[in-house]
Amino acid sequence: xxxxxxxxxxxxxxxxxxxFEKEHEIISVSTRGGDIPTDITSPESVxxxxxxxxxxxxxxxxxxxxxxxxxxxxxxADFKKRARWKTPRANKPRVYRSTVYQS
Length: 103
Hints:
Blueprint: E1 2-6, H1 11-20, E2 25-30, E3 33-34, E4 36-37, H2 43-53, E5 58-61, H3 76-85
């Protein structure tokens, strides 16, 4: 399978890339490098990512802050901090829905 991993340079992205690259073709995407450097806050950059990747089987997005560790150890403050970044009410850049482009 051809799998795109967005956030491939982060903690979770690195682990997933290592786990999947043994049996799959991995396209790594991150702001600072990877196979396809992409700014996920820019609709044009995301559009270019899809064009560059071509046809793929799966996309995994680990971009943005997340809790790493057992869920039982996540505090309400940890959850709020991570969820706030991922919601529109936070004064943070938003990721826009994009069209998948096939070559």
